[in-house]
TrEMBL record:
Protein name (record): Putative oxidoreductase
Organism: Geodermatophilus poikilotrophus
Membrane topology summary: Multi-pass membrane protein
Record keyword Cell membrane present: yes
Superkingdom: Bacteria
InterPro entries documented for this protein: DoxX, DoxX-like_oxidoreductase
Length: 158
């Protein structure tokens, strides 16, 4: 026997939704923590935001003195936003683009070159970012509380 709640969800449907929300939380938190940790490593390696800019410029990244510090700040702020579940669709797309840049300019050793700075990790992080951009934060993210969902209108209503 299936129990149907007033919301229209069944017990099985509620279990699936709850599981989905927990999985999205774990994925968001994992990605966000990795991004914040990476921002710290880059900052520590460069010694300052300007130092990170010099490193990016030396690596051949276009406008490295500008994109290096911007990258560190984005990974820090975007990582925190991802953990909290704020603006996940936008942050997810931007993180995916960030990972494309990392692949193109830094991790160029070819696929599966794990001992030679290969791109496997940045590809996986970029794909996870895209998945989260499409799925959103779930009910356990702040987006769920901050964004008012519109309900479709029926014909003849205003």
């Amino acid at each position: 026997m299936t129990t149907t709640y007033r919301s229209g969800h069944t017990r099985d449907g509620a279990l699936v939704q709850n599981t989905r929300d927990v999985v999205l939380l774990v994925a968001r938190a994992g990605l966000g923590v990795l991004m914040v940790a990476h921002a710290k490593v880059e900052y520590d390696f460069g010694g300052s935001l300007a130092g990170v800019g010099r490193l990016f410029a030396e690596a051949g990244v276009p406008l490295g003195t500008l994109t290096g510090p911007a990258n560190v700040l984005f990974e820090l702020v975007g990582g925190i936003a991802m953990v909290l579940g704020v603006a996940v669709p936008v942050v997810g797309v931007l993180m995916a683009l960030n990972m494309v840049g990392a692949w193109v300019f830094v991790h160029t050793s070819g696929l599966f070159a794990m001992d030679h700075n290969g791109p496997e990790l940045v590809i996986a992080l970029g794909l996870l970012s895209l998945v989260l951009a499409v799925t959103g934060s779930g009910r356990l993210g702040l987006d769920h509380l901050l964004v008012r969902r519109r309900t479709p209108r029926t014909a003849g209503t205003r």
